């Protein structure tokens, strides 16, 4: 068995974070490639109406799925003339793509706010490493470190399920539509990058040899736990199930 290198090379990790555009909290700017497809607006009133239309379309996605987005349905939901939706969006494809783009922008702001809110707790957890690989910590300190990481992840997931359930429903609706509509895939890739870049930065900071793969695996666990929690019967969240899975996953990744 290979001996674990107990020194985390902080200089290399700092350079990697700068290259990825990540902050000390792990958040990143991934919306540079986001572009709206519909008619461009220059006046504030026009942009406001355009936003109202997109927000109405997003409500329809949550309620009826992406296939429920039609010009007449959106105009009715937004309480605007049908001519307004066809003016800003020449076809349904542009309307759906721009609705997804708005969703991604809103999600990025929400995710950024979470990292900023959690930065103090994250720094407290990272301070436990004291420049070492997690595998080199004493069992007691290692358990405390894993516990703090799990607390952050559980807080994020529970907040999503309790306060942003509509967001999760829309997210899965768009993911399904990406299988049918290849025009949405670049937007989906951008959306995915917010979470993956942040997780990759984190796993790199704690000495992971394959932070990108660990980020993908952990993101998959989060999505599976969120989905299972949404479809389970009853109003109470099974936080024990959520915590047990995250403890197992994080413990395996930090070996």
TrEMBL record:
Domain HTH tetR-type: 47-107
DNA-binding residues: 70-89
InterPro entries in UniProt: Homeodomain-like_sf (IPR009057), HTH_TetR (IPR001647)
Composition bias type Low complexity, residue spans: 20-31
Annotated transmembrane regions: none
Keyword GTP-binding: no
MF term (GO), any: DNA binding
SUPFAM superfamilies per the UniProt record, alphabetical: Homeodomain-like
Keyword list, A-Z: DNA-binding
PROSITE patterns to which the protein is assigned, alphabetical: HTH_TETR_2
Region (Disordered): 1-43
Protein name: TetR family transcriptional regulator
Gene that encodes the chain: rcdA
């Amino acid at each position: 068995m290979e001996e674990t290198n107990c020194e985390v090379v902080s200089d290399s990790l700092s350079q990697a974070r700068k290259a990825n555009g990540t902050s000390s909290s792990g958040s990143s700017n991934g919306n540079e490639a986001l572009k709206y497809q519909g008619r461009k607006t220059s006046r504030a009133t026009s942009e406001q109406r355009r936003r109202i239309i997109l927000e109405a379309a997003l409500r329809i996605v949550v309620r009826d799925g992406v296939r429920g987005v039609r010009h007449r349905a959106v105009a009715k939901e937004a309480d605007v003339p049908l001519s307004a939706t066809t003016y800003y969006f020449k076809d349904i494809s542009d309307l759906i793509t721009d609705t997804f783009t708005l969703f991604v922008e809103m999600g990025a702001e929400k995710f950024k706010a979470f990292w900023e809110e959690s930065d103090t707790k994250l720094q407290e957890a990272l301070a436990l490493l004291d420049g070492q690989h997690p595998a080199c910590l004493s069992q007691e300190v290692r358990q405390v470190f894993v516990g703090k990481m799990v607390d952050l992840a559980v807080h994020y997931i529970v907040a999503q399920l309790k306060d942003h359930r509509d967001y999760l429903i829309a997210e899965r609706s768009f993911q399904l539509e990406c299988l049918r509509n290849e025009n949405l895939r670049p937007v989906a890739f951008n959306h995915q990058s917010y979470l993956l870049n942040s997780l990759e930065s984190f796993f790199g900071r704690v000495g992971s040899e394959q932070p990108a793969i660990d980020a993908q695996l952990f993101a998959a666990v989060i999505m599976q736990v969120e989905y299972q929690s949404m479809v389970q019967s009853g109003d109470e969240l099974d936080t024990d199930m959520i915590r047990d899975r995250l403890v197992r996953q994080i413990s395996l990744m930090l070996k």
